[in-house]
Amino acid sequence: MKKLFLALMVAGLVVALAAPAFANPTITGRVRWDFGYVANSQELTQNGDNDIVSGFMSVASSSFLAAEWESKDKVVGMHIEIGLGGTVTRRPVFAWYTIGNCKVVAGNNYTWMGDGVIGTASWLIDPTVGGMGLTYQGRRPMISIEWRSGDFGVQVGLFEPQMSSVGGTAVNDFRWVLPNLNVTVDAKFGSIHIAPSFGIVHYLWEADSGDDSLVAWFVALPAQISFGPVAVKLAFSYYVNGASDFGGNDLCAPVLAAGDVEDSTAYGGTLEVVFTSGAVTVVGGAAFVTIDNDTWVASDVTQYKYYAQLKYKVHENFEVIPELGFIDYGDDENNADAGSSFQLGLRFQFHF
Predict the structure, then answer these.
(1) What is the per-residue pLDDT across 245-261, written as a single tens digit (0 to 9) for each?
(2) Which domains does the chain possess?
(3) Tell me, what DSSP letter sits at residue 239?
(4) Which of 20-24, 213-217, 347-351 has the lowest mean pLDDT?
(5) pLDDT for 2
(6) CA 166, CA 172: separation in Å to the nearest integer?
(7) pTM, two decimal places
(8) Beta partners for residue 57, in sequence order
């Protein structure tokens, strides 16, 4: 409650100070209420012997209240967003300066990479969790230059690196050389929409022997093709040591073995088909990721996700979204069964 009160005080102060130079703010918000059940196989339970079905009910952390201001000459703007899930949190907070078709953006914000331009409809199974073709890279301190003309845009950005150790192994004076470099192209050609992207970050540390540096990098090609009421989304990604910096699978982290770094590699893909008719949208999707590290007993690890969703638009500002999905974690890095999970959920989504 204290955090919310403080956030509202700060927002009020910003409004008061900005009023002379800025137009009236645009206020937006969203509430996502989730309810459902998860059936996990014994490999995913604490007891390790029995399959367990458990329920969940929550206000999603992606619920928010946001305000956006823009100067009267449309050159400078800022966006402040407060998360309203289980706790009050800071979401995107950023500002921009516009020069012709270019925009300089600085603050705490998302990259265009991963699912930043073309994302999936799934909220329950969500292929971006697990780095399956599409990834969610989160909001982080950043600065970027964005250029856009018509249906073509480019973002070149520097984002705060996220790795704090070598795959969980602490080393001396671990640090990054330059911030995480992201480059994404956003292009539409009639009914075809693509958003190829590339990212890279370099780390150093002090070592008496063996390796003293590593590189994490990421490349992806999300695409969407529309045919009247049908949209088909396809995405493929390949990344090295991408667990921390590029929203990849958690297993895709480097391993430090006898002083030497063994890179983890991963490739994955997502296919989603969306059909819309009036107030009803039907979604079906499948995704996979394969991860490998030479230190593992297993030659590689492959995981799969499948989901079906129905979205009904009850009102312009209210949607009901049930979803059913299945996750197969395959075998783990030691060739043991990693388990599976059936999930069923219902989301009420209100927005204004």
Answers:
(1) 999 999 999 999 888 99
(2) 100-351 (2.40.160.10)
(3) E
(4) 20-24
(5) 55
(6) 11
(7) 0.89
(8) 35
